[in-house]
Amino acid sequence: MARKPRLFVPGATYHVYCRVARGEFVFDDPYEAEEFVEKVREIRDADDWRVLAWCLMGNHYHLVIKTGSILLWRSMLRLQAGIARGHNKRRRYLGRLWQSRYRARIIDSTNYFRQVVSYVHLNPVAAGLVSDPVDYANSGHREIIGHRPTRLVDLPSVLIEFEDELGNGARDNYFKWIRNVAEAKWVDQGLEELPWWKSARDKDEIAAVDEHPEAETFDGQTLNDDRIRCSLDEFVELFERFAGHAIQDLASPLKTPALVEGRIELTLLGVSRYGFRSSDLAALLSKHPSSMTRWLNKGVSLELKDQTFRKRINHLDQQISAVARNNE
């Protein structure tokens, strides 16, 4: 029996991929390539994406994006449909442009994030088009290394993920990851062989609820319209009461294991179960938004792999919801 697909998590980071139907090299045309970039920029700005890596090949694309509150499949529908309509109108074609629905995979660790960003920008090298990714125009590599003004990439959000523990050398570390990934055996293999794709439950790992009403959230919950809602202030007060962490302590620069765990719990509960924006939680803790992304992704990963963590999150959720329900 197939496992249930997982639903979108707002504020999480995704590797998104799709191919052109029949393998046609549509985007070898510079005009078509530029139209693709413009459409991604339009969706990015409208739907509060942060583009962390991108590469447009002749017959497929890769995006690494951090989403906002807009559902991923809604953004992707507008993106792919818009590109297809423009292409068909210009060429006077009928029929579909894309081979299938896009594929997406949540990136749930810093290690996978660095791998996927490097992998995406090495696509032209793996395909034998160039020997150095800096020689390929239609990717985010040149933006990250500072060889051209940014077209799509949110540079601060990418570089902070490549900083070392002292907060230095982000670009140098990025180059090291590029070299390491270039030597990896999986770099020129199919999508299913990528390390962060191998653990996917099925092709619809990231699902739309209207397509898969049986789907669950990443924390194993069913999507529920009557879920308890509360204000951010109320949520924070109840979190402090039941989790045993003061927001003042979580906002401090200290990085003890207990505080890191508390930040992960606050972010996971706040974003995935109570629907708060990660940017609002970042402001609450006086943290950079990329930190919230790391904690959310780590929380999603722990939910899937650590039974003790999952039980604690469920228990905290039940305690907070019970009081919030009584306060309604």
Summarize the structure.
The protein is an alpha+beta fold and 328 residues long.
Can you describe this structure?
By secondary structure, the protein is α+β, with helices and mostly antiparallel strands. It has two domains: 6-207, Transposase IS200-like (Alpha-Beta Plaits), CATH 3.30.70; 232-327, Chromosomal Replication Initiator Protein Dnaa, Chain: A. Helices cover 49% and strands 9% of the residues. The protein contains 13 helices and six strands. Strand 3 (50-56) and strand 4 (60-66) form a beta hairpin. Helix 8 (232-243) packs across helix 10, helix 10 packs across helix 12 and helix 11 packs across helix 12.
> What is the strand content?
5-15%
Indicate the mean pLDDT.
85
Cα Rg: 20 Å
The CATH superfamily of the largest domain is Transposase IS200-like
Spatial shape: globular
Sheet with most strands:
4 strands, antiparallel
Number of domains: 2
CATH C-level class of the largest domain is Alpha Beta
Question: Would you tell me the structural class of the helices and strands?
Answer: alpha+beta
Roughly what percent helix?
40-55%
Give the helix tally: 13
Low-confidence stretches: none
